[in-house]
Amino acid sequence: MVRKILAMGAHPDDMELEAGGTLAKFSENGDEVYMLILTSGGYTDSAGSMHKDSTLHDEAELASKILGVKELIILDYKTTRLSVNSGVVSEVDDLIDRIKPDILISHHPFDSHQDHKTAAEVMAAAARQGRVKNVLSGSPLPYRPNIFAFKPQFFVDITSTIDKKADCIRAYNSQYTKFGGEKLIERVKAMAKFYGWAMGYEYAECFEVIRIDDSLMGFFK
Ligand SMILES: [Zn+2]
């Protein structure tokens, strides 16, 4: 059975950081991975550097190729100003009606970034009434204070795809450079090692379950 996975990040590179190894594993398995980015991506960082929409879009394309994403969809909400309203929910509703994902992955509701929190709320709204059966929140990065609200519940062994995860993070050259280059990769790998240790895997990603049905566990096959 081919499963359809919709990963919804507030910004470009979010889902690569939180779920890149898992998404690569799904696509290698023959499942269909769709990447949705809610904001246009461009922003001015605290050091005053401009990160243009077009740069982020090119980087998102490259990262999607590495992950084997079937379709990349970028909406044009403004970075830092994403809010839950009928506009964004109905846009995501339309995509869910078209794609019919079995699994929806987005941010954690207690993430410290306002856009990430909003994305988590949009995920809950769009998955209402059984429209998506399996709903997962990715792990916030450790520099966010709210990481301690995250409950690691659903683990994926990403030992075979950790290199793809690293490569798709490098594909966002503007962000990779801003966040310390190989130091960022080292930290992402350390986090995957830490979660892997919990399960006896070399590297893992983990998710908090918002809800799942038996299909995700492979029961009754
Ligand atoms: Zn983000």
Summary of the model, kept short:
The chain is of the alpha/beta class and 221 residues long. Helices cover 41% and strands 21% of the residues.
What does this structure look like?
By secondary structure, this protein is an alpha/beta fold. Helix content is 41%, strand content 21%. The protein has a single domain, classed as Rossmann fold. It contains 7 helices and 9 strands, in the order E-H-E-E-E-H-E-H-E-H-E-E-H-H-H-E. The strands form 2 sheets. The protein has a 7-stranded mixed beta sheet, sandwiched between helices. The protein has a two-stranded antiparallel ribbon with strand order 3-4. The termini are close together. The model has no long low-confidence stretch (mean pLDDT 95). It binds zinc ion (ZN). Zinc ion binds next to loops.
Approximately how much helix is present in the residues? 40-55%
The main sheet comes to: 7 strands, mixed
Please, what is the CATH homologous superfamily? LmbE-like
Rg measurement, Å: 16 Å
Ligands and ions found: zinc ion
Uncertain runs: none
Beta content? 15-25%
The CATH topology annotation reads as Rossmann fold
Question: How many H/I helical runs?
Answer: 7
The beta-strand count equals 9
Mean pLDDT over all positions:
95
Give the helix/strand layout.
Blueprint lengths: L3 E6 L4 H15 L3 E8 L3 E2 L5 E2 L1 H15 L3 E7 L8 H14 L3 E4 L7 H13 L7 E5 L15 E4 L4 H10 L1 H6 L3 H18 L4 E8 L10
Parallel strand pairs: 1-2, 1-6, 2-5, 6-7
Antiparallel strand pairs: 3-4, 7-9, 8-9
